[in-house]
Amino acid sequence: MTVSTLDPLTLPLRGASLIEASAGTGKTYTLAALYLRLLLGLGQQAAYPRPLSVEEILVVTFTEAATEELRGRIRESIHRLRLACVRGASNNPLFSRLLDRIDDAGYAARLLLAAERQMDEAAIYTIHGFCQRMLSHSTVESGLLFQQTLVENESDLRRQVCADFWRRHCYPLPVAVARVISKDWDGPEKLLAELLPYLQGEAPAVRNPPEKTETIMARHERNIARIDELKQRWRRAAPELLALVSNSGVDKRAYNSKNLPAWLEKISLWAAAPTEDYDVPKELERFRQPVLEAKTLKGAPPVHRLFEDIDEFLQQTVTLRELVIVMALEELRQALEQEKRLRGGKWASMIC
């Protein structure tokens, strides 16, 4: 690829050109100059094969404001260059350079007058405006509805379908389960904010992917069963834990006569209570087998099957978060697609 400074009067008007330009570098000025060249067929070897009429030139930009500015600048340039052709001179450097390239000023003035009269019909659009125009002109060929709605911004639509998901799946939940979910998201807006990066791309990786028909309540019951099972194992082993740890080589500065009984009592109280949420005592961390081994500097560490169970339990977070994310992503994608079809805006949003 050849890189060079752009000159609007020598830029080839056939093929494709990649132009890099930051703010304030004269993009509108350049587009107006290229438009004049296309109207008059200027540029010699770099020119378009023939002069074009206004209705044959398409200009596409991003915003309505940019469209109006560009339309006004092109209209003004056509008018001023026409006057320069009639007078035979101009104080504007661009128009002076163009006049030097015009062989027949009278003919050029007539072309510019015709263009000036056609400017209300000029094809200068925003991207979405051009897409809408093409869709309305090609309704039968494209197999679309005659009434199309162009989706320029999906924000409102995304909020709507996410609120529908929340209403269907979260409102009917028992209070205890709703409280679990509210620790991650206090409503559909927060859920949508987390899902946005994944709506158009790949879903996030999950450690425990849901089964095809798994529901929030089914996953919740599994989670409660996991916690209850650990509680039951703790209750069975609790009577022997104080002596087991105290008589081991574990660091007694941490697992001393004050801390150890307090930790055991707190966990035992939790293990004896009904399970309503996923909260677990932070003291469980003290009784993971790898932790106990790391805290044993001399002698043998305390060893028990329960300590391995605790380690395994804490490695797999008990949560509804992954399930809700996977369910919501799938349903939101389907709902967005369906809503676009219903509104007749599917292909418009895809093309734009």
Please, could you describe this protein's structure?
It is a single chain. This protein is mainly alpha-helical and 352 residues long. 57% of the residues lie in helices and 2% in strands. It contains 15 helices and two strands. Strands 1-2 form a two-stranded parallel ribbon. The longest helix is centred in the middle third of the chain and has 31 residues, at 216-246. Residues 345-352 have low confidence and may be disordered.
For the secondary structure, the number of strands is: 2
User: How would you sum up the global shape?
Assistant: elongated
Number of helices: 15
Strand order of the largest sheet: 1-2
Helix content: 55-70%
Largest sheet: 2 strands, parallel
Rg is 36 Å
Kindly estimate the percentage of residues that lie in beta strands according to DSSP. under 5%
Distance between the termini: 28 Å
